[in-house]
Amino acid sequence: MDDNRLRFGVGVLVIAAIGIGIILTFLFGAVPRVLTGEYQLLVEFPAADGINSNSPVLLRGVEIGRVIDKELRENGVLLTIGIDSKYRKNLTHEYIPKIKTKSIITGDSKLEFVKGDEDELQAIHEGRLDTIRTQTYTDDQFISYGSPASDPFSLVLNLEDEMRKTLEAVQSASGSLQSVGDNVNQLVQNADGVVQNAEGQIGDVAQDARNALIEFQGAMRDIRNVIGNPELRDSLAEAFRELPVVLNEAQNTLQSTQKTFESFERVGQRFENVGVAAEKTVQNVDQTIDSVREAIESAQGTIENLEKITDPIAANSDQLVVQVLKSLANLDRTLVQVEAFGAGLNNSNGTIRRLLDDEDIYWQLRRTIENVEMATAKIRPILDDVRVFSDKIARDPRQLGVKGALDKRGSGLGLK
Questions:
Q1: Does one domain contain both 90 and 180?
Q2: Mce/MlaD domain spans which residues (predicted)?
Q3: Is residue 144 part of a domain?
Q4: Cβ–Cβ under 8 Å, residues 83 and 39
Q5: Rounded to 5 degrees, what are φ and ψ at 306?
Q6: How crowded is residue 221: how many other Cβ atoms within 10 Å of its Cβ?
Q7: Using an 8 Å Cβ cutoff, are 138 and 187 in contact?
Q8: Residues 43 and 129 both lie in one domain
């Protein structure tokens, strides 16, 4: 009976331990989330220090997913992250993935989507920023612009070499102080020897020793003040806090300088284009000068031809003037006749004027023309018959009653 109870208790303990282990596994994210839907993103970073599987993914301080896989690539590290589907609408292309320090003690890091400023977004998305700004990340989308964010803790960790040099300097100073102490001890020993050898000089030696000790104490106080001064410590802390801002300003200054150099380069290209255009303009001017020169030569040839034509005219100018005067007189007479003809034409009693103005004459003329057309139509069959009759007579003239004359026989009827 006791064995059965013991076995039952052990079984219950084992089942409870397995259940607790499964619950803890789900709570701490050691297995994929099966109860919540998620979609994956592929993010590439230059380095992923402190990022492991199941590292949290944050958005504005809220955990929205986790790191699923970490893969080493040739030029960086590829992280596969899972994002809860309920945060899909909140995660747009305005947010940039960055790695930040989660704990300076354990060295763990976190992946957080941070809203980028306009310059950073413009550098990443270029001309697509306006259309892609409010679009969400899609499933299995590759993001190539992941970057580690500037963190004051990482800056402090990067000052390890400087702190080591400072400690080495302090150690060297302490060695110098130890040497000074040895010299003081040697001085005391020498003072003892002097006291033994010359009791008259003991007061001076004691005074020198006292002065040396006072200077040593002053030096120690100065060193203590330098090392333990709270204002100096606060200044160092303030300098460390302002160091990221200074670095960001330096980065912005370098970017502005780069943009300025690019502007100078574009200006140089424009000046080069202006030089090319000026060269083309000079060539066009040369061509224009050649064309003008050819036009001048052609004009000179034309003038020479005109001179050849005008020379005979100048030689016969008297005859030409007489002929021109005669032509003008004839033209004058012709114009007088034309004027008389026009006057007769415009005369209301004239025939042409009456034809133009009198409607009765117009209709009479029209009826006459119609009668002529009708007579012509009636005469045409008669002319056709005459043509046929004349053709027949031409073929056989005896049809006109001259058959006997043509045959030299009588014109009587019957047979002989």
A1: no
A2: 38-115
A3: yes
A4: yes
A5: -65, -40
A6: 10
A7: no
A8: yes
Q: Which of 228, 246, 275 is the last residue of a domain?
A: 228
Are both 160 and 127 inside the same structural domain? no
pTM for the whole structure:
0.34
Tell me whether strands 95-101 and 147-148 are parallel, antiparallel or unpaired: parallel
What is the tally of structural domains in the chain?
Answer: 2
Rg (CA), the chain: 64
Domain co-membership, 142 together with 161: no
pLDDT in tens, the chain (416 residues): 577 777 777 888 888 889 888 887 766 654 455 555 788 999 999 888 888 888 899 998 889 999 999 898 888 899 999 999 888 888 888 898 998 877 767 777 888 998 888 888 888 888 788 888 888 898 888 988 888 765 555 555 566 666 677 667 767 766 766 776 677 677 667 656 655 665 555 566 667 767 767 876 776 666 666 556 666 566 666 666 766 776 777 677 767 767 766 765 675 676 566 566 667 766 776 787 777 678 778 777 777 776 777 777 667 777 777 787 787 788 778 888 777 777 766 666 666 666 666 677 778 878 888 888 888 888 888 888 888 888 888 787 776 665 555 555 554 444 43
